[in-house]
Amino acid sequence: MTALVALLQWTTILPLGKPADFEQFARRSWLYPAAGYVTGGIAAVLALCIPQPLVAAAVALAAALVISGGNHFDGLLDFGDGAMAHGSREIRIRALSDRAIGAGGVLAGMLALLVSFAGLAAGPSVPAGILAGEVLGKGAMAVLTVTGKPFKEEGIHHYLHRHARPYFVLPALILCLPLAGAVPVPALAAAFVAAALVALGMQLLAGRFFNGVNGDVVGATHELVRAAVVVVLALVPAVPCMYVLS
Predict the structure, then answer these.
(1) What is the pLDDT of residues 99-109, one digit of tens each?
(2) Which residues of 210-246 are buried (b: 16+ CB within 10 A; e: fewer)?
(3) What's CA 218's distance to the chain center, in Å?
(4) Sign of the CA dihedral with 16 first, then 173, 74, and 110 last
């Protein structure tokens, strides 16, 4: 429970009392998807209260961003600046680490929000879409924590990566499987593939641009995986069973 509380204090703005021992979570970073059930679950409940899909999609996406404190979205903005900077690897890393947000970050944020909103609004179920996007996004964070070589020996990602173990990938994936209760298995399988491809692509890009991964890259991966998942759920052909959350 200490690890779970520390995870939620790290990934949300929920009032959970005094700070928990973060090392407890660092030694169990496979728990990341559990935070997705919390952020996605709250957003899904709000969406269930709104019958208009466009409004429900906007509220659900806004809720997920606000509950997370914008931490992962901030990582996406920083990643956009670093990825679109011109020049050497050192210049890209400076742009990634700079507190100011440039045109690359603004563009990355706008595109991710537009795609996420369109996918949620067009999908068969806004609540199921936001839940799946949040959980699989957190699952991708758990995988990158294990596989993403840090490009510097400091920061939160370096700390988590140092405590992570290769087998963490398996329990993180298992934690995502209960989504089958809300999303049909064929659609969920496609969403898993999309999440894996985005995570792999981000790791390859980070290696090329920055010679490794940091916390911003991991947070950006969450945002892009969410966008990819909701789009896939909207585009997967109709299946015999309906989404549980409607």
Answers:
(1) 888 989 999 99
(2) bebbbbbbbbbbbbbbbbbbbbbbbebeeeeeebebe
(3) 8
(4) negative
pLDDT at 240: 44
Instruction: Give the Cβ contact number of residue 158 at 10 Å.
Output: 17
Mean of pLDDT values over 163-181: 96
The three-state secondary structure class of 183 is coil
- Distance, in Å, from the CA atom of 218 to the CA atom of 21, rounded to the nearest integer, reads 21
pTM over 0.85: yes
Grade residue 17 by pLDDT with cuts at 50, 70 and 90. confident
Is 145 contained in some domain? yes
Tokens of 45: 């409940």
The verdict on residue 246 lying in a domain is: no
Range of the domain at 180: 33-234
List beta partners, residue 150. 213
Give me the number of domains the chain comprises.
1
Classify residue 20: in a domain, yes or no: no
Q: What is the distance between the alpha carbons of residues 7 and 47, in angstroms, rounded to a whole number?
A: 24
Question: Which neighbouring-strand residues pair with 213?
Answer: 150
Residue 134 lies in a domain: yes
User: How remote is the C-alpha of 42 from its chain's centroid?
Assistant: 16
Give the integer Cα–Cα distance in Å for 113 and 223.
9
Cβ-based neighbour number of residue 106 at 10 Å:
13
Q: What is the pLDDT of residue 237?
A: 62
